[in-house]
Amino acid sequence: MTETLLDIKDVVVEYPPKGFRAKPFKAIKGVSLDIRPGETVGLVGESGSGKTTLGRSVLGLAPVTGGSIKYRGQEISNATRAQRRELSHEIQVVFQDPYTSLNPSMTIEQILTEPLTVRKMERQAANKRVAELLDQVRLPHDAAHRLPREFSGGQRQRVAIARALALDPKLIVCDEPVSALDLSTQARVMELFIEIQERTGVAYLFISHDLAVVRHLSHRVAVMYHGEIVEWGDGGQVTSAPEHPYTQRLLMAAPIPDPDRQAKHRADRLRLLGIQREQDVQAGFA
User: Fold this and answer.
1) Which of 154, 161, 163, 153 is nearest to 107 (CA)?
2) Is pLDDT at 266 greater than 60 in this prediction?
């Protein structure tokens, strides 16, 4: 039986009410999924679906009010700050915006060295590791002495990926890591993610609103809607022949260069939107 790296079971994330007599806001409603070593699980959904909140709950940045999150069999859903520090060399994150996720006043060398020195790595070994990381993400060694503002968006995201890899993690939570990039840069960064995974065996929880992106990267795919998983299974199946109307709608949102096929695509999507609205009304979402 294949070992489970991350096991999310019936997780609930609930935020306190903001107004008088208001009900608590339940962002995640009993979600379950698992990730195996060396696997990419794509988590896809529109804005507000709860996908980023689920990623944040894995990182300890969102309050888990029900269910459990286990990493290698250890419960981490309510880990202390000290326990989170110990977990940081195993679980890392790449955020969406490469422009704000890097400290603008630090050189790339300082950014990449910081997690190493926290782990008390000697200076010479840390410098060697920084050179290795720059090689892994296909950046020149002289990049170490430059500031983030001297790089393009794609290059900054490569620096963010290098920082996440610094401590040889087993799992990286990737929160919309290519959505702020242009299409050609997206493709290069996605190929980099695949290349790194093949070389290191790292697992990814890859969060995106774009079904085409998760299709390219994911072994399995979970589709979120209103804080729930509505479809979950093999990546090829879910992203090419989905069963749930919401996933079908996401698939049809992707443009097609053929005008006739695009017109049919649009008509089918409008039909599915009507079905989804009726279901939302019945479920109390609208």
Assistant:
1) 163
2) no
Instruction: Report the distance separating Cα 233 and Cα 231, nearest Å.
Output: 7
Q: Are strands 220-225 and 203-208 parallel, antiparallel or unpaired?
A: unpaired
Nearest one of 244, 239, 220 to 6, comparing CA atoms: 220
Sequence ranges of the domains in the chain: 255-286
pLDDT band, residue 284 (cuts 50/70/90)? low
Token pair, residue 126, equals 């840390």
The tokens describing 249, both together, are 């709608």
Token pair recorded at residue 104? 């603008």
Residue with tokens 């170490």: 144
The first and second tokens of residue 94, run together, are 């790449």
Question: What mean pLDDT is reported for the chain?
Answer: 87
Task: Say yes or no to pLDDT of 150 above 80.
Answer: yes
Do 15 and 63 form a contact (C-beta atoms < 8 A)?
yes
Rounded Cα gap, residues 181 and 190, in angstroms: 11
Express the helix, strand and coil content of the chain in percent, nearest 5 each.
Answer: 45, 20, 35
| Helix ranges restricted to H, the chain | 51-58, 81-87, 108-118, 123-136, 153-165, 183-200, 211-217, 235-240, 245-252, 259-283
DSSP annotation of 24:
P
